[in-house]
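Discussion board: Methods & Data

I've been asked by a reviewer to show the raw model output for two of the constructs in my manuscript, not just the figures. I'm not sure how much to include, so I'm pasting the format here to get opinions. Each protein appears as its amino acid sequence followed by a line of discrete structure tokens. Is this the kind of thing reviewers expect to see in a supplement, or should I convert it first? Here is construct A:
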Amino acid sequence: MRQIIDAHVARPGLAVVEVAAADDETAFAVQELLAECWGIAPADRTTREPGEPGVRLRCFLDLRQEPGSEHQGGGEPDPVTG
């Protein structure tokens, strides 16, 4: 997977979540559960690492936002959720 950059965790409430799962369906199900609780920048695909079992998925959480909410004016947009 790509390196986590500082902007992804630049402020309290921002988090990077990496999911390791047996298959795509399971990884995306975990992502959906996270999206029900917090603002999320979802992944649209999984990755496979040669020599490692299963798939990986990385998504970005903004614990300060409600699920499904978008950035609203007033200040800088978050580097993760826009």
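Construct B, same format:
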Amino acid sequence: MDMGWMVPVGVVAAISARGAFSTWVRAKHGYPLENENGRRSRRSRDGIPPETDRTVTLLTNENERLTGQVSRLEERIAVLERIATDPAERTAREIEALRDR
């Protein structure tokens, strides 16, 4: 049986697999992708990917939301710590004062 055709097919398969693996690794780690001419693809005029502005905006909004949420949780924890460490009679007086309002 003549298996001479397997060598060129194996070489082509290996080269294709290397290119696919290289592109996958670059995309996974955030490196710029290159087109078939070796030039970076999807770049704006100043060299920054166009999706970066949107990503920065989304991350900034999420950061502000999470910062506010952490602040509220810190306030709640402070109240719970005060309730847990204060004497029972002081806490009872504060509760009664709130009921009287």
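Answer (T.O., handling editor elsewhere):
This is acceptable in a supplement if you add a one-line summary per construct. For B, something like: The mean pLDDT is 82.
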